[in-house]
Design brief:
The complex is a heterodimer of chains A (595) and B (329). Chain A has 595 residues and is mostly beta strands. Chain A has a domain at 23-171: lipopolysaccharide transport protein A fold, CATH 2.60.450. Chain A contains 4 helices and 38 strands. Helices cover 6% and strands 56% of the residues of chain A. Chain A has a 22-stranded antiparallel sheet that branches. In chain A, strands 1, 2, 3, 4, 5, 6, 7, 8, 9, 10, 11 and 12 form a 12-stranded antiparallel sheet that branches. With 329 residues, chain B is mainly beta. Among the domains of chain B are: 30-160, no CATH class; 186-284, Immunoglobulin-like. In chain B, 5% of the residues lie in helices and 28% in strands. Chain B is built from 1 helix and 16 strands. Chain B has a 5-stranded mixed barrel. The chains are: A mainly beta (595), B mainly beta (329).
Chain lengths: 595, 329
């Protein structure tokens, strides 16, 4: 008993000591007459009756405050009062460097002095110690309008800042009230894991946050749902994260997404993605239709191999007596397929003998084994659950693959050539196999100075064949490609869709070939201007069908970049499809602004 | 006799006039625009301009007496005064604190004037203001502080050695040694990314940075080689950022050689002319066509695992970049 009491006391002491030592950097609650955030500089300022409460309980007040959120350092200046459980000081300025765990103070009275505090031990002044030369500098923000304005903000160093309700955000030059706003500036990209399917318009309203999470509503629009609202919650801890979203929240058809990632050890990680789709008037109502999908991955490094286990579970119908599409089509029994696959991929290897011949050749190889299961039988080549009169509820597959490639080999000082080839074969217990072969050769001319144009040309041949041996014509009857996903009686030679009518698909027998030639020129005459023009030609069999498969025969991509200011670069891109599928220019210009 | 005395006086005046500089010329070149401290005589205040501020002996912050300075000639300032221009942190207890962290003693009462007009003002100096301090070289104390809310070019304070007041003797801080002075000058940063052989020739690569809110399409890279992609950007020295390489979305992000999620690359912009950020990408998160990275952006289709309406396999013919419907199933 005494042992446990001692252990508890020891743990409490250690915990309190630890929390005291690092608590000062966990959060800062800042109040002032005006608090401004400058998004382009990641700088937060406050003026007038500034009061900053550090998470260890210390309160620092003054006339002005500034914090560089990226460099994680702050300054309070002007009639500074430092008050804490063991300290009551006045001075001219207090600067905090949480990363160094040092705090710098300019004293007043008698004769001014420079003090340095280590951590939150304010009783040990380290008077006269050298301080960073710019510890008390205030940022120059002239002519820069703040992005957010408020009077209360909670700072979670290195992660985010949370403005209180009533803060105003600058939108198109107008400051608009918000229900609160969180700005994330973390260097951890996991705060930005996407939990939504695409929309053409999305404005995030992150109204709540802490050092480990962000909660937000999203105002979204797409051509199928119209305008709607979605919800997202992100929980992040170092490399691990959990994302939960409801998209859309306000429409009948909803997706409930959960994305999880856990780094179990430096060599092992797990991923989880599960998606529930429901159809109901309100989120809490019983849905009239529901389906789900779950993917789980376990990835690990074993010696010089990347090993992964991938599991998929589809629940296309979750309602016992439902009226869903699957039930209506008599496919309810097929609605719960499952697959699992083990993959092994080697690290990069090299045949050293070729290096000695000044012609280095590298290679990687891979292999895998998996099962596909569906109670009602897996749809076979003829789009029926049986093949040769037999039902195949379980199909196993095995694959091996090899990639062989050269690095860029210099033909001349500025001209390089490289070749790569990949071959994969996949066998199935339902007797057929698929071969995929891709070979690419590239020649590039790359000047050492960027103000001369660089060129490259690449030729690629891709072959994909699904081989059934003697049953090839049964698997791929004439016209089979014309009605993808349709049973053989519906086979056709012609496809008509919103892009036009396309014919000539009768010849397809399960073997596809794509030959592509790509040429590109990149010209950067100055640091302020760059042009990239790429021309591609594809010769694809079976004939490409827009919206279904294949590549447009001719594509021209133009990309122009110009630096407008020191911190602003505009990138304008557009593609031309030479009237393929009645498409000429790609739907619109792509305009990107970046630093 | 009187004529001799007059001639001697004239000769003396002439000699003095020849050897003394004109009263309005600087003792040393004015170097304020370049940022150095200035050693120049303070021009006498325009005595013909009436002053409405408090007299020099008036306490800081006291209410000025209208007309108190009317037609009152200001005392001629001593020559060779030292000035320093900088941003204020605080003025308190007879000391003026600048953002350099230096504290300078000031006479009591300190004469506060408006920088633009040179007239005495009742405005209290406060943090963030800019000020030009005029020192008495004998006492090393500030005798006049010209304040403004407009940004002024900061002087070099090295000429003020011995002027700043610090109670304790300066001691070294080993953790700061070796620290580099960063001026924020523009530095050209070239991103050179080596893509894995699984990258299609038509793929576009991007750099995503924390500075850009991890936008997966933030910086577009140009393909200059079979594997090499390049882009150039300019950053201020001292900038720290983290970045990752994507193919346009977080469902197609770089992975390590072991196939595991890799940490962002950290980059620090040093005080040089140009830098290169070189990264080799070994894998993409979606490079396995049979099992692309699952996520909301890649909504799973019903279990029709057949490439051309054929048998199970999970291979696909590349789609042309036409708009695709995002549908619920």
């Amino acid at each position: 008993m005494r042992f446990f009491l001692c252990a508890i006391v020891a743990i409490c002491v250690i915990a309190s000591t630890t929390s005291r030592a690092d608590a000062i950097v966990r959060s800062i609650v800042l109040k002032a007459d005006v608090v401004d955030y400058y998004s382009n500089r990641f700088i937060l300022t406050a003026d007038g009756h500034v009061r900053a409460r550090l998470s260890d309980g210390t309160v620092v007040s003054g006339e002005t405050f500034s914090m560089d959120l990226k460099l994680n350092r702050f300054l309070i200046a002007g009639n500074v009062h430092l008050d804490g459980p063991t300290v009551h000081l006045t001075g001219a300025a207090f600067a905090g460097y949480p990363d160094l765990d040092h705090y710098y103070f300019l004293t007043e009275g008698g004769e001014p002095d420079r003090w340095t505090f280590f951590g939150s031990d304010y009783n040990d002044t380290h008077a006269g110690r050298e301080q960073p030369g710019d510890a008390f500098y205030l940022p120059n923000l002239d002519n820069t309008p703040p992005y957010l304005v408020g009077n209360t903000v909670t700072i979670f160093p290195k992660n985010n800042i949370e403005f209180g309700a009533g803060s105003r955000i600058r939108i198109a030059g107008v400051y608009t009230p918000t229900p609160g706003w969180v700005v994330n500036f973390s260097s951890n990209p996991n705060f930005y894991q996407n939990g939504f399917a695409g929309a053409v318009f999305d404005v995030q309203v992150p109204f709540r946050g802490s050092s480990n999470d962000i909660t937000a509503f999203d105002i979204r629009y797409d051509q199928y749902q119209g305008a709607f609202i979605a919800f997202e919650e992100h929980l992040v801890h170092n490399a691990d994260y959990l994302v939960f979203t409801i998209n859309p929240l306000t429409q009948d058809q909803r997706q409930w997404n959960l994305i999880g990632y856990k780094r179990i050890s430096p060599a092992v990680e797990t991923r989880l993605f599960t998606q529930l789709s429901t159809l109901s008037t309100w989120p809490w109502k019983e849905p009239s239709n529901a389906s789900a999908y779950t993917n789980f991955q376990l990835n690990s490094r074993i010696a010089k191999y990347a090993v992964s286990l991938n599991v998929d579970q589809y629940n296309n119908s979750l309602l016992p007596t439902d009226n869903s599409l699957y039930a209506a089509n008599g496919l309810q029994a097929d609605g719960h397929p499952f697959d699992i696959e083990l993959n092994v991929q080697s690290f990069e290897n090299e045949w050293r003998v070729f290096r000695y011949l000044h012609f280095p050749i590298k290679f990687q190889y891979r292999a895998g084994y998996g099962w596909d299961y569906s109670n009602g039988g897996i749809l076979a080549a003829n789009s029926a659950p049986t093949w040769g009169g037999a039902l195949y509820p379980l199909i196993s597959n095995t694959y091996v693959g090899l990639t062989v490639y050269t690095p860029s080999i210099h033909l001349t000082r500025l001209t390089t050539i490289s070749v790569k080839s990949d071959k994969e074969r996949q066998w199935y217990s339902l007797p057929h196999h698929i071969d995929t072969t891709s070979t690419t050769a590239t020649v590039a001319y790359t000047p050492t100075v960027s103000n001369r144009p660089a060129f490259f040309a690449s030729y690629n041949v891709l072959n994909i064949g699904d081989y059934y041996g003697a049953d090839q014509l049964e698997a791929y009857p004439p016209g089979g490609a014309g009605c993808l996903g349709e049973a053989a009686p519906n086979a056709c030679n012609t496809i008509t869709n919103q892009f036009g009518t396309f014919t000539g698909l009768d010849a397809f027998r399960g073997i596809a070939t794509s030959r592509g030639l790509t040429g590109s020129v990149i010209y950067t005459p100055t640091h302020y201007f760059a042009v990239n023009i790429t021309m591609q030609h594809f010769d694809v069999t079976p004939a490409p069908v827009p919206g279904v498969g294949g590549q447009a025969p001719f594509q021209l991509n133009a990309d122009v970049r110009a630096r407008l200011t020191t911190n602003l670069l505009i990138d304008v891109a557009r593609s031309y499809y030479f009237n393929f599928g009645a498409e000429r220019w790609s739907p619109e210009f792509t305009v990107t602004l970046s630093p | 006799m009187i004529a001799r005395i007059g001639a001697v006086l004239l000769l003396f005046i002439a000699l003095v006039g020849a050897t003394s500089p004109p009263a309005t010329s600087p003792v040393s070149p004015v170097t304020e625009p370049s940022g150095a401290a200035t050693f120049m005589p303070v021009p006498p205040p325009p005595s013909t301009v009436p002053s409405v501020g408090p007299s020099p002996s008036q306490p800081i912050g006291s209410t000025p007496t209208p007309g108190a300075g009317h037609s009152t000639p200001q005392p001629p300032p001593p020559a060779n005064l030292v000035t320093y221009t900088g941003q204020l942190l605080d003025v308190r207890s007879d000391y003026v604190y600048f953002t350099t962290g230096d504290a300078f003693a000031a006479i009591d009462p300190l004469r506060i004037v408006t920088y633009e007009t040179g007239q005495v003002t009742s405005v209290q100096p406060r943090a963030k203001m800019f000020a030009k301090a005029t020192f008495d070289p004998n006492t090393h104390k500030i005798i006049e502080l010209a304040i403004t809310t407009k940004r002024l070019k900061t002087s070099d304070s090295t000429a003020l050695v011995g002027y700043a007041v610090q109670k304790s003797k300066l001691s070294d801080a080993p953790e700061l040694n070796g620290g580099q002075r960063l001026t924020g000058r523009p530095v050209s940063v070239v991103f050179e990314i080596t893509a894995p052989p699984t990258t299609n020739v038509s793929d576009t690569l991007y750099i995503s940075t924390d500075a850009g809110g991890w936008n997966p399409m933030e910086i577009k890279l140009d393909r200059v080689d079979a594997y090499l992609y390049r882009a150039e950007r300019t950053y201020a020295s001292g900038t720290k950022f983290a970045y990752r390489v994507t193919r346009g979305s977080w469902n197609s992000v770089e992975r390590g050689e072991d196939g595991l999620d890799s940490a962002p690359h950290n980059f620090f912009v040093r005080e040089v002319d140009s830098l290169a950020a070189r990264v080799t990408v070994y894998h993409w998160s979606d490079e396995n066509p049979a099992h692309p990275q699952a996520g909301p952006e890649s909504i799973p289709t019903p279990f029709v695992n057949n490439p051309f309406g054929g048998g199970p396999g999970g291979i696909s013919v590349p789609q042309i970049p036409t708009p695709q419907a995002t549908r619920f199933h």
